[in-house]
């Protein structure tokens, strides 16, 4: 696959948007006009001379530096499309071993260089975006450390190079009959080391767990030496070092080899889509299923707005009309919600699970029928394709972004409504309407994640479009930070979420993270600005929200 | 219940040891002679004058100080039985609210006092044993903070005072139809705050998880202020502060209110005991069940030595003979192992689980029959009574202790054999034989815990007995520390395990924990000597084992 230099994924793949889908979006946000893209050549021409001293592992060619300058956040997108990158790394290294990573860290200390670890470059929160710095910046691309180094079948532990991307994780394991089962939407590109460093969660977390449940140990190279975390199934011996390194986003060190808990490939896996009469019945059904511990591999509930948008964006108009007629016939009208779920396991257990699931869904008025299978299978085939949508709508002047959080069940409705309404009204002063819709996914007995997609109209120019996004992001993030929720359930903090982190961690929690970072990296050389706001932090967002969860004595 | 001042649990309960059980122990360790117990009065007479300045919440009466001076580790036991306590706390406080805890911490700073948090006093690793100190020592007993403060049924989160012991946790929840499901063997006395501070695991962790999976958030009072951890189902926003505080064993602060994830009481719960032909078949069966994710609430495999000992210690001789004859008839001879397991859930799911379990056990030669139910029910009725055994054997000059660890499946046999043989041979230079046996419990896809019980003969006097224990503990702990395992799967570090912690955490991991402790408690006022070896540390054990898992650059 040839990777898009200025957008998502495979250059040759295009996700079509059906006309009635585009009409639906325009019915909310109005007519749009596309902005002009910059060319790769014009961006390469801007790349300044590298400030890095020579090293055999360090490449300073312009294209490498352009291709490692940005992730996939909306500001990253605007930078790539406008060609206004601002800052480029001074060079890119492609280490192949832990000892080369060590060598590069030693080089960084010796020559006073900052280091940004780079996995798949899929961050949607600005993790790998360099900020202006008096020190030269080296981006360390771990993509050549992509091998299954060991598979212990008895203990079901696999050792991977940290830069192994999703498809190479699965293909190497499946050749031996195993799976990791970690499928974030970014799976085609994101890497196992990145998943760990930013605490990722995959679509089938209900069976396989979050990356926290998979990460068993491994090696992190820090500026103070190598941290080897042994694999132990569980321990009561003090604070968990694994849990301290997960989510450290390159601030404490760089993962080079990681050991993950794997499973035998399941005998059977099935996905289904069922429609529920309304929001309350849909939400209650999934809550009951997860709180009753019915073995399943995923559940997702699209609210009425998302159900409508997905059916418009994912089907031909004629198909949609047929489905709509059928559902109305069954009594499901405009309030209907869409429940996607999966079972993964032995045929015997899946059958037992499906019996329990059907009983619960029936109780709450679910309508599935023969369509449930077909639509489930469509979902599973398109599950990694959503990010390509931005490419298609962008060409029509429609900007799209998503945001996500997690909260307890008793707060789900309030928070979801607050987020959607914050987005819908954020641009009212500009007379702009925003289209927002939401699904719940990643179900826990305590609560779930809330994932909201929003479309808005590009402004006349890039700066205006960025300004619109800033308003949207800040308003929604403030609602989250003040709303008993996490600033990110599955995408990490990066630079975009750093101003809102204190509301979750508290003054003392922030202090604990900062204390560790300062001890391991006293000169602030590793991924500055990410996770913790540093003085140099680029002004990505407006006023930070400070936490109220804490009282200092 | 009146609590024993110098041993385990309820003063009125006596666990009988059948004669053929005692014979079995003596057949290994030889004839024994009991040591003389000290009286409470004689110990109270030793208590020195308190060095604490007056405070309305601080009690300095001798009996309070005696009853809070020791936990339940073997050295604690010897101290309580010999009356040689060494150090007593200078006073005990019984705060009833978070703000009283804060007030006491302020008092500690103002008057240069050390503070030991005390939950149920059930530590088996020296967590709450005060060490000699120039500063006065205040033990803070949280036992009056024992109320269910809130139950959110929708999000299934309960808020408890940190000092709530197991029975009060469950009775308050069950009155509302809920359970926490955390049942460590110490359940009758240990507290929810203690479980969190020392990363406890309960017997039904296979269904309910370890305390790490239950702890959702709460309040810790530190010397730098209050740390309020919000409840969020899951977060990718940076290192997990919950996981940093769990296992901090009083070094970072004192939990006052804790929020835990609870479940509806299950429709049905059943326990079974099945016999397996040998170790390999038993171990493989449980590994297959857990790796295939069959929903169960517990599994425990006693090796042949433990199966034999348990049947001798837990049944009358006539019962044992009948059972033995039946099992031999079924082809299970001396190599037979005992598998105890439970299912908890809906009747429908339990039935499905039992079908899968029976298939697996049959494949591996398991023998259950009508006895499986009866013996399972006996296990569940006696599940919290094992700790009382020490009282009974002690009166006959037989010392007993246990130790536990966890490791990956591929290392289980090696480590179990090494631990047993380390114990069996540790006293050879004294011409003493030791009886050791083991079970596996707390099954994970990656591995399991290994729990070994050992009996040895009391020496002529207390000092000699302590010396024997030191040798045993050090030898087994060294085997664990060098054996790809944790120094504790479920009992924490305390003072007894602190010398062995570096092998698991590494130089950098230890540094991270120490950095946090120094930042939050720069004067080392909170529970010194626990978790981290401090300079003042009493010389409980011999030479510490330093880690090899780490290389310093």
UniProtKB/TrEMBL annotation, chains A, B:
UniProt cross-references to InterPro entries, sorted A to Z: Alkyl-DHAP_Synthase (IPR025650), FAD-bd_oxidored_4_C (IPR004113), FAD-bd_PCMH (IPR016166), FAD-bd_PCMH-like_sf (IPR036318), FAD-bd_PCMH_sub1 (IPR016167), FAD-bd_PCMH_sub2 (IPR016169), FAD-linked_Oxase-like_C (IPR016164), Oxid_FAD_bind_N (IPR006094)
Pfam families: FAD-oxidase_C, FAD_binding_4
Domain of life: Bacteria
Location of the FAD-binding PCMH-type domain: 85-265
Keywords of this entry: FAD, Flavoprotein
Gene3D superfamilies: 3.30.300.330, 3.30.465.10, 3.30.70.3450, Uridine Diphospho-n-acetylenolpyruvylglucosamine Reductase, domain 2 (3.30.43.10)
Similarity remark: Belongs to the FAD-binding oxidoreductase/transferase type 4 family.
Protein name: FAD-binding oxidoreductase
Protein species of origin: Thalassolituus marinus
Higher taxonomy: Bacteria, Pseudomonadati, Pseudomonadota, Gammaproteobacteria, Oceanospirillales
């Amino acid at each position: 696959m040839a990777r898009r230099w200025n957008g998502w994924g495979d250059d040759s793949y295009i996700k079509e948007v059906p006309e009635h889908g585009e009409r639906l979006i325009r019915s909310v946000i109005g007519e749009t006009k596309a902005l002009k893209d910059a060319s790769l050549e014009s961006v390469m021409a801007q790349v300044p001379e590298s400030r890095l001293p020579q090293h055999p592992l360090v490449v300073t060619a312009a294209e490498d530096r352009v291709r490692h300058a940005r992730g996939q956040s909306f500001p990253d997108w605007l930078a790539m499309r406008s060609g206004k990158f601002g800052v480029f790394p001074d060079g890119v290294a492609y280490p192949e071993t832990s000892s080369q990573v060590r060598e590069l860290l030693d080089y960084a200390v010796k020559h006073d260089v900052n280091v940004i670890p780079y996995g798949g470059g899929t961050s949607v929160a600005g993790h790998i975006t360099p900020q202006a710095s008096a020190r030269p910046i080296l981006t360390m691309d771990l993509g050549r450390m992509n091998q299954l180094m060991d598979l212990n079948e008895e203990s079901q532990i696999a050792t991977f190079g940290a830069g192994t991307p999703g498809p190479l994780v699965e293909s190497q394991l499946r050749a031996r009959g195993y799976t990791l089962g970690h499928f974030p939407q970014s799976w085609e590109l994101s890497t196992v080391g990145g998943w760990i460093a930013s605490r990722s969660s995959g679509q089938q977390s209900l069976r396989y767990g979050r990356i926290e449940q998979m990460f068993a140990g491994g090696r992190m190279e820090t500026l103070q030496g190598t941290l080897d975390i042994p694999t132990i199934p569980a321990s009561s011996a003090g604070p968990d070092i694994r849990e301290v390194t997960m989510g450290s986003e390159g601030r404490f060190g760089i993962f080079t080899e990681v050991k993950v808990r794997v499973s035998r490939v399941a005998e059977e896996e099935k996905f289904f889509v069922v429609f529920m009469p309304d929001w309350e019945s849909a939400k209650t059904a999934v809550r009951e299923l997860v709180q009753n511990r019915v073995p399943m591999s995923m559940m997702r509930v699209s609210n009425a707005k998302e159900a409508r948008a997905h059916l418009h964006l994912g089907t031909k108009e004629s198909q949609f009309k047929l489905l709509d007629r059928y559902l109305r016939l069954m009594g499901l009208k405009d309030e209907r919600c869409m429940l996607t779920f999966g079972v993964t396991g032995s045929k015997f257990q899946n059958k037992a699970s499906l019996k329990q699931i059907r009983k619960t869904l029936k109780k709450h008025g679910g309508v599935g029928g023969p369509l449930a299978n077909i639509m489930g299978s469509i979902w599973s085939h398109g599950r990694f394709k959503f990010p390509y949508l931005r490419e298609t709508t962008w060409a029509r002047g429609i900007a799209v972004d998503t945001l996500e959080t997690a909260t307890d069940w008793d707060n789900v409705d309030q928070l979801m409504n607050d987020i959607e309404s914050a987005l819908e009204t954020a641009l009212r002063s500009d007379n702009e309407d925003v289209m927002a819709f939401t699904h719940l996914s990643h179900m826990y007995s305590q609560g779930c994640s809330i994932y909201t997609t929003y479309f808005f109209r590009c402004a006349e120019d890039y700066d205006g479009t960025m300004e619109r996004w800033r308003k949207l992001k800040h308003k929604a993030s403030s609602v989250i930070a003040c709303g008993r929720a996490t600033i990110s359930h599955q995408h990490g903090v990066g630079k975009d979420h750093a101003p809102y982190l204190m509301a979750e961690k508290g003054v003392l929690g922030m202090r604990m993270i900062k204390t560790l970072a300062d001890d391991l990296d006293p000169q602030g050389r590793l991924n500055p600005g990410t996770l913790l706001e540093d003085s140099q932090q680029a002004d990505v967002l407006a006023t930070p929200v400070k936490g109220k969860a804490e009282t200092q004595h």
